[in-house]
Amino acid sequence: MLTLSEISKAYGGRVLFADASLQVNRGDRIGLVGPNGAGKSTLLSIILGTEVSDGGKIALERGVKFGYLPQESAPVGDETVLELATAITPEFVKLRRIVQAWDSDHPIEAQHVEDIHDDVHDRFHELGGYRIEAKAKQILAGLSFREKDFNRPSRELSGGWVMRAHLAKLLVYEPDLLLLDEPTNHLDLESLLWFQEYLKGYPGAILMISHDREFLNQLVGSIVEIRSSKLIRYRGNYDEYLVQREAQGEQLAAAYKNQQKEIAHLMEFVTRFGAKASKAAQAQSKLKQVERMEKIEAPESADSKVSFRFPQPQRSGIKVVTLENIHQAYGENVVYRGMEFKAERGQRTVLVGPNGAGKSTLLKILAGNLIPQSGERTLGHNVKAGYYSQYRVDMLTPTNTVLEEALDTPSRVTEQFVRTLLGSFLFRGDDVFKRVAVLSGGEKSRLALVKLLLDPPNFLLMDEPTTHLDMSSIDALLYALDQFEGTLIFISHDVYFIRALANHVVHVNAGQLTHYPGDYQYYLDKTKATSAREALTASGRDGVSPSQKTNSGTAAIRPSLDRKEQKRLEAEQRQARSNQRKGTQQLVHKLEKEIQQLEAKQVELTAELEKEETYNTPGRAAQVNRELVQVQRRLEQATPEWEAAATKLAAMA
User: Fold this and answer.
1) What is the DSSP letter of 404?
2) Model-wide pTM > 0.90
3) What local confidence, expressed as pLDDT, does residue 553 receive?
4) 319-527: what fold?
5) Would you say 480 and 425 are in contact if contact means Cβ atoms under 8 Å apart?
């Protein structure tokens, strides 16, 4: 479908791609990964033809349709949201305009229909006709647009909603190849989960850039990493890619180390005996052997990563914040009426719920950035709040340089300390003199985190903190927040991030807050159980048939189970639990034994690689390396399997 052959691209002295190649076939689901600035978006631009490569070839199968969603700033005109979502091709837009004019008994002027087929209606229906509109409405609803928004002018929308409308247009168009650049950045959790499920059934190929590992794990069948100016492909999802890359790195490091030892051994002979006539020929032979050897390049050092931890703030009282009888409305749109909320020290609360439910409003009220129209916000003893806005520009001054912005803090800090901190956030050298206005989304996010660190709170409120951060930055932020001893309330659409942090979930919907005192999985289990009960009740399968309902709608009393039957059911349940425990116990023992054997084999193979005689047998070192990599891969798989089984067994006790 799409072939990139030996593509090269450089900006100034910086090489992004050198002889990079990639094959995309029909049905492929590919995640494109790499640190910020590696060239991911540039690669999509080269495929689209908006950027010209310095060398190489791009071949696209004839007749293939492709669609592209940029990371930011898609254009809008005078069209409504629905018209934008259905503007799949210029021809379809033109035909729809004509058909709508004819259907409304207001045919357009003859000059406006030049070059149009006589069979306008036939062609219009051939391209999808009014089915396109129905499909667009379904997709817009899935992306959290309300029906009253369909006829709203697109130019009235915020940038994030414009991107959603363009995403809807792409899904309606359904190209053969979908190119997506950070498609989840502008979605809330619920619309993201809908979008994720929709893409699972998408008929075309997908090449996407995403920093959302859960999204990648759910959707892709291979990962393409930009590294060393090449495109390196790994089979499997993101988690499987990490395992393969680590194993590959270990294998490369071992092979490089072994080759260097072999070269050193040969060169020692050359140095010692090169001057002796009796050994000179042999020394020359060994020297040529070194020269002919295909050299293994030294493994690259780890990619630059953000490395930080929050300075631990002063301890607050147990009660951190209380909201009482909060009323908040925007015009006729009432968000909260009499809302109550409490948070205690050490809680890590994620706010979830549909878009527009009031999550960001609640976060701003908690942070003190929004004064409610009525009601009280009370901070606990010694509580200091810090707010990390979804819109980083709200936290930064565009005309400042990076250094000036970082120095603009209430804390007394030296310029040297600030520059050191900026360096740990990858602002190095002259980067600190860049204006905030020209920073990328990821750079603005990192700078906003620097400002939080320079004035650390003990009550941290974060709105979509992972947006625009790359994978390594997200991992670093997770590590820092995991060590953070204060109280955290956050909004995120990144399921991996939520699972790693939240120990309390609050569902926000229609001005109502529902608390779930557990992690994200606890919330999912509870809401799933509630939905199942509601479905059973609605269908009459709750033990009360529709015929048993009284005229007032009150259910008749359900007859109790026969005592004998109840005992039998209880016995079956006990037996099932016993069998399940026995099976889990056997699995734990089996994995323990396997891990012991693998660890022993690992020690044995590593020891063999340290022996000089291993390299005297041709091919033996390479074989041992392969075996060692296989053992390490299985060990990395077996250990989490054992942990999961052991945890499950402990829960059955």
Assistant:
1) H
2) no
3) 39
4) Rossmann fold (3.40.50)
5) no
